[in-house]
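Researcher: Following up on the earlier apo prediction. This time include the ligand. It's flavin-adenine dinucleotide, with the SMILES given after the sequence.
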Amino acid sequence: MPAGVLNARSAHAAGVQRLLRSYRGVPATSPIRLAKRTSNLFRTRAKTGATGLDASGLTGVISVDAAAQTADVAGMCTYDELVAETMRSGLVPLVVPQLKTITLGGAVTGLGIESTSFRNGLPHESVLELDILTGAGEVLTASSSENTELYRAFPNSYGTLGYAVRLRIELEPVKPFVALTHVRFHSLADLVAAMDGIVATGSLDGVAVDFLDGVVFSADESYLCAGRQTSAPGPVSDYTGQQVYYRSIRHERGVTTDRLTIHDYLWRWDTDWFWCSEAFGAQHPLFRRFWPARFRRSSFYATLMRIEQRFHLGDRIEKLHGKSPRERVVQDVEMPLDRCTEFLDWFLETVPIAPIWLCPLRLRADDRWPLYPMRPRQSYVNVGFWSTVPVGQVEGETNRLIERKVDDLHGHKSLYSDSYYSREEFDELYGGDVYRAAKKRYDPDSRLLDLYSKAVQRQ
Ligand SMILES: Cc1cc2nc3c(=O)[nH]c(=O)nc-3n(C[C@H](O)[C@H](O)[C@H](O)COP(=O)(O)OP(=O)(O)OC[C@H]3O[C@@H](n4cnc5c(N)ncnc54)[C@H](O)[C@@H]3O)c2cc1C
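Model: Understood. Below is the ligand-bound prediction.
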């Protein structure tokens, strides 16, 4: 075994020991939480005296097996680090979430998605096995043949059954460039029909599609962005400088094309946090020129946003201008593809937020993942919208309206942000019985929070 791999394995083993020591150091009566530098969670959490587990030794890639196309990865390894390492072997994870600081453990327990999801499903579907520090303080290996109950219940459990310390994942080959085709639509029904066609055939006008997502600016202006991997050299665009990626896809009619390096394609949405960097002035040509390049990344905007939330700066400014405070509407929902147009029409009429991100998705196999029960062999569209609206009569009015609409149309809502479900509704939507059985078995003394407390009660 190469010395580098041996070193990485012993460093990881030491990291697990450190985690276990910190677990044992928490009094049995105290709740446990993860201490982690970055987060892509949007829910504001109640302040707690809970001790943070020391996960500092669980970063990085442990090994890549290029022949088997797999990698052993520490639970808190960011996708930024992970991709940099696997690309040395010409490989990437099957789904690479767009934000650099999302960790593999976070994407598996909290669900990630990206433009390969129409052919590769969700990140947890390419996890072959994982080691989990359970609430009971044991490190167990879970896979489709070992501790299966834990393996199936882990996705969408948000660290309430245990923490992933190592994951073995599948990888796939990748080429150095992505050729992009941006197709303009004047009707959402036409866009959704075209998306359905690409998902079904894996091609657009006879050309293979490896990546697919889309953006809605209004009912009359929406785009599909189809990408094809290629090794053909040639000029590429750069959206890490003065140009902004989402603006580059807009045009009057028909089709435009573009090319990016695979690196820049994978992180195309990170530089400006999709379009959300606009709220901080980062897209203004004058500011942008002086905005340090290292701060043009989602993690920096997320920090600014947390400061804003902490001091309610946005609401204070609104008040100064005689306006009412705003309700945060930051959500990703999965709609069955055949109900997507209906949802988008309703959304554009009801919720004053645009642009909207679209990403088609099909589970990769027929396996069931009870805490986020999507139907195998059914096409869905992830619909993402991240902004604020004027507050309504009741707390979370617009978020509640969205929850009801999503349920009416048989969609699902991710849990990384605010939720307002009753406990009964929540149980029905997120595998209540299976979850309770797994919780009893793997966290019998409730050392970790429970999913409802975390996702809805913001604990
Ligand atoms: C604005 C926004 C946009 C997003 N866009 C995307 C997107 O485009 N694509 C996408 O794929 N996802 C997206 N997400 C969702 C994101 O992937 C999930 O929130 C994911 O859980 C974040 O992972 P993280 O590593 O940052 O975890 P954190 O934010 O640190 O933690 C999330 C939760 O997971 C738990 N957790 C963290 N690490 C582990 C572990 N190793 N084992 C067990 N539990 C753990 C934490 O306790 C916490 O409850 C978005 C989220 C936001 C807020």
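Model: Residues 34, 36, 38-42, 75-76, 97-99, 101-103, 105-107, 109-110, 112-114, 158-159, 163-164, 330, 386, 416 surround flavin-adenine dinucleotide (CB under 6 Å).
Researcher: Noted. I'll compare it with the apo version next.
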